[in-house]
Amino acid sequence: MDLGIGLPVCGPYAGPEAIGRAAETAERIGLAAVWTYERLLRPAEPMMLGVGTVPLPEFQAAVYDPRETLSYVAARTSRIRLGTSVLNALFHPPIVLARRLSTLDRLSGGRLTVGLGQGWMAQEFTATGVPPVRRGAGFAEHIAAMRRVWGPDPVRFDGRFYRIPEGEAGPKPSRPDGPTLFAGAWAPAAVERAASMGLGLITVFSDWDTLRSTIATFRNAGSLPVAVHVNGAVTTAPVEDRAPLTGPVRQVAGELAELASLGVDHVFWVAPDHDPDHLLDALGRLLRDAGEKYTNDRSLM
To answer: Where do the Luciferase-like domain residues begin and end (predicted)?
Structure first.
């Protein structure tokens, strides 16, 4: 298992220099990956979330695009993996997204890890002109079409939702089977679908019982990789009422063994309201406390 961090792509600390500095520091201290995500807009009306009907956080009003961000970061680093958690596949035509991702993969020397989602916000479906009913079967077909684009020429795809006329489409990714693909999922049906499609799993941590159940459901279909997304920060100072996997370094270090015992391959922290320099300092201490146990082993490549 190895560790990563969400880049400051939104919130009060976001900006080109902060993003570049965070990526360079993450690579220098031995983190395995940096992560971005996609948000097209922050709707004016409140949204139904797990805690009820609330406005989306203000920081989601402006989020740097994941592909351009990772291209920028690729030029400022040389080893660290570059991940999306997640990029909403359905909002982009398969051939367009496949070529943009393979270009990024080539430019970064094969360091791309792609977490894909189906999208959930009705307003984003409206804004992109994509019908929400395309979720599910359309998502599976979208990924099949991208895999066809990444395969040998000539490329052709004839599906229910997507068609690609026969022709040549490049550049091809660094590896013949394309970049490592994950699905962002937590509902049991979505977790099972990810496994059936041969995708790794990215799941957001909520509590230990839910995580155990999610991983058990996913592992029933094989031994594909699992990444855990933690919303919150590791800190160097005490924290009141901390959530699991957040707060003081020593306490988080003690919880990493539980993640490893569940077969988690990677864990990363996303904290837009937290100073990235402070989070990186804490993660550096976490790595030192853990010794070589959770250093970069390229487990998600």
So the answer is: 15-222
